[in-house]
Specification:
This protein has 156 residues and is an alpha+beta fold. It is built from three helices and five strands, in the order H-E-E-H-E-H-E-E. Strands 1-2-5-3-4 form a five-stranded mixed sheet, covered by helices on one side. Strand 3, helix 3 and strand 4 form a beta-alpha-beta unit. It is globular.
């Protein structure tokens, strides 16, 4: 039986994906005490990137915002893989978003809003978090966006 968070996902028309397998020597998420830290999550859908390139060049800011939403969705799958149940999330503590940016693109915060807004839609007040949105030259597999999430869990 799905918990409240997964019921909210279903209400939004979303089904939690399988955890994206690591591209190198790391785990998708690890738990330390009451915190779960995800590795950087790419906007993989069914094992592949739907779009590649730099935001502000080959990828529009609007497309990138949707990709950031996908990254956050993949991060929730990674959290569930170690926490067992998304209802254990007490709050999202921090989101860090990386945007592969054309040299003149400065809209990184608006792109990473895609991740922040998804977490708010799904988790309500528990989804409110601190955040960094960073422009970078290139990301793995030429992904336009990558997002990592830190959450605090409730006990048990």
């Amino acid at each position: 039986m799905a918990g409240a968070v997964e019921a909210k996902l279903a209400e939004l028309g979303l089904t939690l994906p399988a955890v994206v397998p690591p591209l190198a020597s790391y785990q998708p998420a690890v738990q330390s005490g009451v915190y779960v830290y995800t590795s950087g999550q790419l906007p993989m859908v069914d094992g592949k990137l739907p779009v590649t390139g730099k935001v502000g060049a080959e990828v529009t800011p609007e497309e990138a915002k949707e990709l950031a939403r996908t990254c956050a969705f993949n991060a929730l799958a990674a959290v569930k893989s170690v926490a067992g149940d998304l209802d254990r999330i007490a709050r999202v503590v921090k989101v860090v978003g990386f945007v592969a940016s054309a040299s003149d693109f400065t809209g990184q915060p608006a792109v990473i809003n895609g991740a922040s807004e998804l977490l708010g839609e799904v988790l309500g007040d528990k989804g409110v978090h601190a955040r960094s949105a960073v422009g970078v030259a290139v990301l793995p597999l030429d992904a336009p966006v990558e997002v990592e999430v830190q959450v605090e869990l409730t006990g048990a």
